[in-house]
Amino acid sequence: MVDIQGSYDDLFTAVPSALAGLLDDGDAGASVAVFVDGEPVVDVWGGFTDADRTIPWQRDTITNVWSVTKTMTALCALVLADRGDLDLAAPVGRYWPEFATTGKENVLVRHLLAHTAGLPDWDGPVEELYDWPSATARLAAQAPQWEPGSAAGYHSLTQGFLVGEVVRRITGRSLGEFFAEEVAGLLGADFHIGLPAEHDHRVALTVPPPSLDEDYAASAPGSSASPSAGTAVRVRDGNNVAWRRAQIPAASGFGNARSVALVQSVMACGGTVRGVRLLSQAGCDRAREEQFSGEDRILGMPVRYGLGYGLFGNAFGWGGWGGSIVMIDPEGRMAVAYVTNQMREPADDNRGLELVMAAYDGLKGLRA
Fold first, then answer.
1. Residues 6 or more apart from 52 whose CB is under 8 A from it?
2. What one-character-per-residue DSSP string does 238-268 give?
3. 3-class DSSP state for residue 18?
4. How far apart are CA 145 and CA 165, in angstroms?
5. How buried is residue 275: exposed, middle or buried, by Cβ count under 10 Å (0-12/13-18/19+)?
6. What is the pLDDT of residues 94-116, one digit of tens each?
7. For 244-267, what is the mean pLDDT?
8. Which end of the chain has fewer beta carbons closer than 10 Å to its terminal beta carbon, N or C?
9. DSSP assignment of 121-139, as one string?
10. Cα gap 304→33, rounded to integer Å
11. Other beta carbons less than 10 A from residue 350's beta carbon
């Protein structure tokens, strides 16, 4: 049995046991955290930070969480909306005039958050993702692939630039700076969008699925997904220094389960965690306002999108390429996060769901 480090409430024993099982099955490393009422009831980690299984995963190990980053970007937009600085029903062009061309005049801010803006594909070179002005100028010049708001197609890389540029136009700060100063810094959360060099020694590089190498690229999980016209991102791209330094707010966030669960506990606890108020209750509830329900034309599967989060019954959250996930349950005032450097093929990856269900077992006991 793999050695699991950290601490947990006895009611939540199923969570570290499930993590140990995944590591025993061959995963490299991971961390899991469950926060209830803004405090950790599970904070555990185990395994290794490298593909060769030589460097143990530590308490402060961080890794790329890929699209879990989108929940951090969404939170920034919701904070601005709650302050009255951002109207989610306004045209994007109100804040970013250059965007309102080529059929995008009627794209609303909420369309960006709900993957309904019609700009799902990144069609530039991967290197241009590292240059904010070039990336946003490319997107501002694009025409939408469908009538904005009429359909959904997962904006895997583009969403972060679209929402992030609106945030930048309003605040004068990059998305990463705004997040660091107005969210992570206030909460003391070890999560970064644009990772400074002094943290490099703590990074667990992404390990591709078994029998695949670093040329492994992202693909849609659904069988009916249409082939993407966009540029494929490979594991080796996410493992390079340029990716870490860049602000790609849909995909380049670095953290661990503790920091993800801490930040998203804000959404689980009515906007206030550890005496820090980031949002009103109404501001939190906004995340769950359904914007789209149906088949996502990029993912090829049924989805429900709120404002920046996927909706799953009464819970909401999102997962990242390779397996990391965050799930938020406002009724239980619980946030569950699983962060791993070990990818699996999307079709056979139920690890996050397994850990979320284990957390619910503990919550039932806690609330009994």
1. none
2. HTSHHHHHS--TTT-EEE-HHHHHHHHHHHH
3. helix
4. 20
5. exposed
6. 999 999 999 999 999 999 999 99
7. 98
8. C
9. ---S-GGGGG-HHHHHHHH
10. 25
11. 10
pLDDT, residue 229, reads 66
pLDDT of 220 above 80: no
Inter-residue contact 206 to 103 (CB < 8 Å): no
Whole-angstrom distance between the N-terminal and C-terminal Cα of the chain? 31
Cα distances from 127 to residues 73, 88, 155, 231, 272, in angstroms, run 21, 31, 18, 11, 38
State the burial class of residue 51 (Cβ atoms within 10 Å of its Cβ: 0-12, 13-18, 19+). Answer: middle
β-strands 292-296, 276-277: how paired?
unpaired
| Residue pair 323/338 in contact by the 8 Å Cβ criterion | yes
Q: Residue 2 has what pLDDT?
A: 85
The tokens for 55 are 């460097």
pTM over 0.85: yes
Catalytic residues: 67
**189, 183 contact by CB (below 8 A):** yes
Per the CB < 8 A criterion, the answer to whether 191 and 199 are in contact is no
Lookup result for tokens 């794209």: 107
Would you state the structure tokens that stand for residue 296, as one six-digit string?
A: 């996502």
Output the pLDDT for position 226: 54
What confidence tens digit (pLDDT) does each residue in 350-363 have?
999 999 999 999 99
Closest among 221, 186, 218 to 75, alpha carbons compared: 186
Is the CB of residue 106 less than 8 Å from the CB of residue 148? yes
- H or E element, residue 316: strand 315-319
Helix intervals (H) in the chain: 14-24, 69-83, 109-113, 132-141, 158-171, 175-179, 185-187, 235-238, 241-245, 257-268, 281-285, 351-367
The tokens 């699925």 sit on which residue?
A: 209
**Encoding tokens for residue 355?**
């850990």
- Residue 19, both tokens: 């993590």
DSSP, collapsed to helix, strand or coil, labels residue 156 as coil
CB 308 within 8 A of CB 77: yes
- The tokens for 260 are 């993800």
Q: Report residue 2 as tokens.
A: 């793999």
